[in-house]
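User: Hi! I have a protein structure encoded as tokens and I'd like to know what sequence might fold into it. I'm fairly new to this, so please keep things simple.
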């Protein structure tokens, strides 16, 4: 897809529903599955789909995300004729500095896209967990002579009001779009994945900015305008695993699902690897007092306690007598002795003191934030 299609990953979201976990970093940079970050899935999908020109649009707390992506080398996106490019807000001639919405973020980066003069632009969200071959979606787009193709996935009808819903005819043509409808007419939810004919989208964005300045968001503005103007809009149905991990509950659930060796995501698939940037850490060490069941333990971990159905990310230390159940422990966490952690997410660099308890109750997931300290830590030199 050398110059046929450029990918734009929208990765500037604050992720307020993730609370403590996104106070220091953008949602796409939140750790996932022990050794990954959420954005790794979109980047790996691009690499595996043969897309080597990827713009990553950042905004909120971008430092950690920028460092993680770098020049795109872990994903093979550091080639001379393309690569991964970090695109951040800047002060333009009209005085605008921040992206006002998804479509406005693309408008602000027209110059980047024009460098490659692509026929198509693939717009992605940087905060979903899934595997998808975008080349199949592009073939669908071309075959249907579409101006816009929206990736959709069927969701339970009771969950449909949470999503943008595409109503289609028998040919998969989109005839109506409903943004989070109270009484949805279908269950085809937008995945936040779009393929546009670039020159058509460019014309809409440039003309709007010169006049109304209303086309700020794809869901609220661009798609309805396309439909009103009779553009060929089609829905591409995806039948694989896809998860929006925008809430504490969904993030915890996706990580717990990740522990299943028969998970449909199939993280061990050599034909479709999920790549990431990982620090070099020593091998994990399990002491004679450790007891590990149905869990993922990543490099650098020292475990002297009991771990059940949990994920321990890089360089986690678990003291003697401690119990971790049904939990995600992010990187560089120190867990003291005789600690109990259940139904929880522990943020990066947190410290849990001896004898402390972090337990989610009544179906709620307990969360410890980045570098948060729970309990009274004793002096490490003692």
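Assistant: Happy to help. Inverse folding works backwards from shape to sequence: for each of the 382 positions I chose a residue that suits the local structure. Here it is:
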């Amino acid at each position: 897809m050398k110059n046929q299609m450029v990918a734009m990953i929208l990765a500037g979201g604050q992720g307020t529903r993730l609370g403590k976990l996104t106070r220091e970093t953008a949602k796409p940079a939140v750790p996932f599955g022990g050794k990954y970050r959420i954005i790794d899935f979109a980047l790996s999908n691009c690499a595996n789909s043969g897309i080597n020109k990827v713009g990553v649009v950042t905004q909120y707390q971008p430092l950690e995300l920028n460092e993680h992506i770098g020049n795109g080398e872990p994903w093979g996106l550091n080639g001379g004729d393309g690569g991964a490019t970090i695109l951040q807000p800047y002060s333009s001639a009209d005085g605008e500095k921040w992206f006002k919405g998804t479509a406005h973020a693309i408008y602000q980066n027209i110059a980047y896209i024009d460098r490659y003069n692509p026929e198509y632009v693939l717009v992605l969200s940087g905060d979903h967990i899934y595997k998808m071959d975008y080349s199949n979606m592009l073939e669908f787009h071309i075959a249907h002579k579409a101006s816009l193709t929206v990736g959709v996935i069927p969701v339970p009808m009771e969950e449909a009001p949470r999503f943008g819903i595409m109503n289609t005819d028998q040919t998969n043509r989109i005839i109506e779009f409903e943004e989070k409808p109270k009484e949805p007419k279908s269950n085809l939810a937008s995945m936040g994945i779009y393929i546009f004919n670039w020159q058509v989208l460019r014309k809409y964005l440039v003309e709007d900015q010169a006049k109304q300045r209303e086309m700020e968001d794809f869901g609220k503005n661009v798609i309805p305008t396309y439909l009103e103007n009779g553009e060929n809009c089609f829905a591409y149905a995806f039948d694989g695993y896809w998860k929006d991990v925008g809430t504490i509950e969904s993030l915890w659930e996706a990580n717990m699902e990740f522990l299943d060796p028969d998970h449909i995501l199939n993280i061990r698939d050599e034909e479709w690897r999920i790549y990431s940037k990982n620090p070099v850490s020593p091998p994990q060490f399990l002491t004679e007092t450790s007891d590990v069941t149905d869990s993922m333990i990543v490099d650098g971990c020292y475990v002297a306690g009991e771990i059940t159905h949990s994920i321990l990310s890089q360089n986690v230390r678990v003291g003697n007598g401690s119990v971790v159940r049904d939990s995600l422990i992010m990187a560089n966490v120190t867990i003291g002795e005789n600690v109990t952690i259940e139904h929880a997410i522990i943020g990066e660099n947190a410290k849990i003191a001896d004898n402390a308890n972090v337990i989610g109750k009544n179906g709620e997931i307990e969360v410890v934030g980045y570098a948060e300290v729970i309990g009274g830590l004793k002096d490490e030199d003692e």
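A useful reference point when you look it over: Confidence is low (pLDDT under 50) at residues 378-382. Feel free to ask if any position seems puzzling.
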